[in-house]
Amino acid sequence: MAYWLVKSEPSTYSWEDLVKEKQTCWSGVRNYAARGHLNAMKKGDEVFFYHSNEGTDIVGIAKVSKEAYHDPTTDDERWVAVDIKPVKKIKNPVTLEAIKKNKKLASMALVRIGRLSVQPVTETEWATVLEMAGEK
Known about the structure:
The chain is about 25% helix and about 35% strand. The chain is an alpha+beta fold. A hairpin with a 5-residue loop joins strand 3 and strand 4. The longest helix has 10 residues, at about 125-130.
């Protein structure tokens, strides 16, 4: 299993929206690196849900429920989407500020290439964030 992080502004699509809908198509990604990550996601992979710009914190854990398929928001066959579903809300959201202060997370994509909307998370980073959130 691999680990990932997806970002969304809460005013556009929030964790609460995902919980309410029970599943969503993660579409509209138009960055080549992020597209590569979407293509690499496998059913069952776990995903941090990150609120960007308005809050800047990891607020939930989702799971990939459908692997990459043609993004329905475009006619261009090169772009893909995946489906994700919520697993659980994180008890204590982990802020970007706290992530940047943790030396174990210095290499995390969220710190190095913050604008990337879909990014990989290493097993060590995943465990560290969960520990920071009081989830372990």
